[in-house]
Specification:
Elements (H helix, E strand, L loop, with lengths): L5 E3 L6 E3 L8 H10 L2 H18 L6 H15 L5
Antiparallel strand pairs: 1-2
Helix pairs in contact: 2-3
């Protein structure tokens, strides 16, 4: 996967540096990789702790992980494919 690439970010709308590799497995990781800039991913990475604590989520539990990913998709304004 190309380093130094740019993306037009789904969240901020700016063109900026993309991630070096998908941060998650599967389709959701691919979407983040293709649609989110490094800055907005960093903001989500910080925000997810608050979300996990607020909802009492355990990311290892599939149902909790789905809920976390849904909030992440909203936060990052990911487009459904």
């Amino acid at each position: 996967m190309a380093e130094g690439r740019t993306v037009t970010c789904s969240r901020c709308g700016d063109e900026g540096p993309g991630l070096a590799r998908p941060p998650l497995s599967g389709d959701v990781g691919r979407q983040v990789y293709e649609q989110v800039c490094q800055t907005c991913w960093s903001e989500w990475f910080e925000q997810q702790i608050t979300v996990i604590n607020h909802y009492g989520l355990t990311p290892a539990v599939p149902e909790d992980r789905r809920q976390l990913y849904e909030v992440m998709r909203e936060f990052l304004a990911l487009k459904n494919e």
